Amino acid sequence: MTEPFIREYRLSPLGDRALVIELGSDASEETALKVRSVTERLLAQPLPGVLDVVPAVCTLALHYDPLRIAAADDAGSAYAALAREVTARLQSMDGIELAQPATFEIPVCYGGEYGEDLEALARTHGLTVEEVIERHSAPLYRVQMLGFAPGFAYLAGLDPKLATPRRSNPRMRVPAGSVAIGGELTGIYPLELPGGWHLIGRSPLRMFDAFAQPPARLSMGDRVRFVPVSMGEYARLAETQK
Amino acid sequence: MSLKVLRAGILSTLQDRGRYGFQRYGMPVGGVMDEHSHRLANLLVGNAEDEATLEFTLAGPRLEFTQTALIAICGGDFAATIGGREVPAARPVLTRAGSVLDLAVCRLGCRAYLAVAGGFDVPVVMGSRSTYLPANLGGFHGRALRRGDELTVQRAPAHLYPALHRALQTAEGFVCPKWSVHANAALLAHDHHRIRFIQGRHFALFSEASRTQFISAEFRIAANSDRMGYRLEGPALSLTEPGEVLPEAVTFGSIQVPPDGKPIVLMANRQTTGGYPLIGEVASVDLPLLAQLPPGDTLRFEPVTLEQSEQLYLQREREMALMREGLRERAKQ
């Protein structure tokens, strides 16, 4: 018998209508791969009564309807019945074939009115604006998870020299498309939102579209590279998004 | 049939039971704050429980009906009137074409729900008719109602409450039966609100003193509470070892504690994930009550086990199933 793919996990309740599967305790790519694998499996073969599967850094949550689970199993709680189903699924998983992650090139117009915090951030780290742009557009980032807002992807892989604690006074309105740095992560604001990250540029691409399938441009595990563009190119690309 | 908005109120939006299946894209569930009142209002007018209702907050709208309409109002008490005559809550009301429903300032509770037989005719976006304001999607053009708006109502499938229709022929304004369903308003009459909770995933990370305080202290709902979260004022809660947790999924009723130690109960418009330690989750059966507590009200948390909380939920659902059957029979009379 082969070694099970998921060896260590912990199940716990998140209130009386959600169950959390913990697959690690770190933000490593190895843990993320497990989270993605289990998520894909539970989406491909849905468990009855589960309404939402929400992957995060080292956990995924199943939001469920206790009525639809209790009906199938009179002994014990709906949570216990679902936990048994989940356990059986996890134990039956052998290394899953995950689709190769997609790679996206995201155009960004850095600085100026589109990246109000770029100069200050460069000064903080003793870099020139050009060096910040170079360091930010060099890595191939990994989508760690989606959350915070519709279509917002937390991107891991930031140059450690650019890591910056969040602003102590968050902005009430960050424009849609803003490319920003928060802690050791970077991301693109999909909508106009309040936010405490440092704004370094703006992308003309729409990151969220309620009528698209899927509605978010990026999903967990995808790779992202930022490509610096001029204001003229930004304007031209923005036209194509309308 | 349509409703003309003569006055919009503070925050009046179309909501249903929320948007499921898209949380993995970061799309919040949203939907009604007080699901119990929303469902009762729909059932009273013969709608499916997930039909959109109009949720209004603190100060209500003023609405004109272009045709005869079967309506119900459940939740907080907004001193509803039609032509100066009080409109009783939590029962079916049949009102004449041209009548104007005035929902004044909330006297008890925080928000209420207006259901209209047939349901509001707005597009389903990502599986729901709920308005999600931050992304301007769903509901009525993705926004709160404004004066001058006209909401179309879908044709009601069945001719319900024939006795009310007969009575309306000789009555002024509107007619309604003497009976009502018991609604949240009764619960709100108490001064001390008890909100039951289950220990959260990070409960053990909190200091012993904080865990004790969480259960024994009184918390006040802060003024800056909204559909996204209820901010609580009370003793500051702290972790045994200061630290951070990795972001993970949250739910309706998750009680998260940011570094300032003041708990926030996540409500309908919560984000899909959060990055603060979770001390507990409110029992699902107590969420409708919590949703009716206005800023300034106080509450205490009372621990229950997951099994107790689930049993309470299933019991509430059994009562709701009986209510559904009972109202179906009543509507034939």
Give the gist of this structure.
Chain A has six helices and 13 strands.
> Could you describe the largest sheet of chain A, including whether it forms a barrel?
7 strands, mixed
Judged by helices, strands and strand pairing, the structural class of chain B is alpha+beta
- Mean pLDDT of chain A, to the nearest integer, reads 93
SSE arrangement of chain B, N to C:
EEHEEEEEEEEEHEHEHEEEEEEEHEH
Count the E strands of chain B: 21
User: Uncertain regions of chain B: pLDDT < 50 for 5+ in a row?
Assistant: none
- Could you tell me how far the N terminus lies from the C terminus of chain A, measured between alpha carbons in angstroms? 55 Å
The low-confidence parts of chain A are: none
Q: Superfamily at the CATH H level of the largest domain in chain A?
A: Cyclophilin-like
Largest inter-chain contact set: A-B, 50 and 42 residues
Structural class category of chain A: alpha+beta
**Rg of chain A:** 20 Å
**What fraction of residues of chain B sit in β-strands?**
25-35%
Identify the strand order in the major beta sheet of chain A. 7-6-13-5-12-9-10
Helix content bin of chain A: 25-40%
Oligomer category:
heterodimer
Apparent shape of chain B: elongated
Name the CATH architecture of the largest domain in chain A. Beta Barrel
| CA-CA gap between termini of chain B | 24 Å
Give the radius of gyration of chain B.
21 Å
Written account of the structure:
The complex is a heterodimer of chains A (242) and B (333). Chain A is α+β, with helices and mostly antiparallel strands. Chain A has six helices and 13 strands. Chain A has two domains: 10-92, Gyrase A, domain 2, CATH 3.30.1360.40; 103-240, Cyclophilin (Beta Barrel). In chain A, 26% of the residues lie in helices and 27% in strands. In chain A, a hairpin with a 3-residue loop joins β3 (50-55) and β4 (59-64). Chain A is elongated. In chain B, the strands form four sheets. In chain B, strands 13-20-17-18-15-14-21 form a seven-stranded mixed barrel. In chain B, strands 7-6-9-4-1-11 form a six-stranded antiparallel sheet, with no helix packed on it. In chain B, strands 2-3-10-5-8-12 form a six-stranded antiparallel sheet. Chain B folds into two domains: 2-186, no CATH class; 190-315, Cyclophilin-like (Cyclophilin), CATH 2.40.100. Chain B has 333 residues and is of the alpha+beta class. Chain B has helices at 35-44, 162-168, 185-188, 208-216, 287-291, 306-330; strands at residues 2-7, 11-15, 53-57, 62-65, 69-77, 81-82, 85-86, 93-95, 100-102, 108-116, 150-152, 174-175, 193-199, 219-221, 229-233, 248-249, 254-256, 264-266, 273-274, 278-282, 298-303. In chain B, a hairpin with a 7-residue loop joins β17 and β18 (264-266). Chain B is elongated and about 70 Å long.
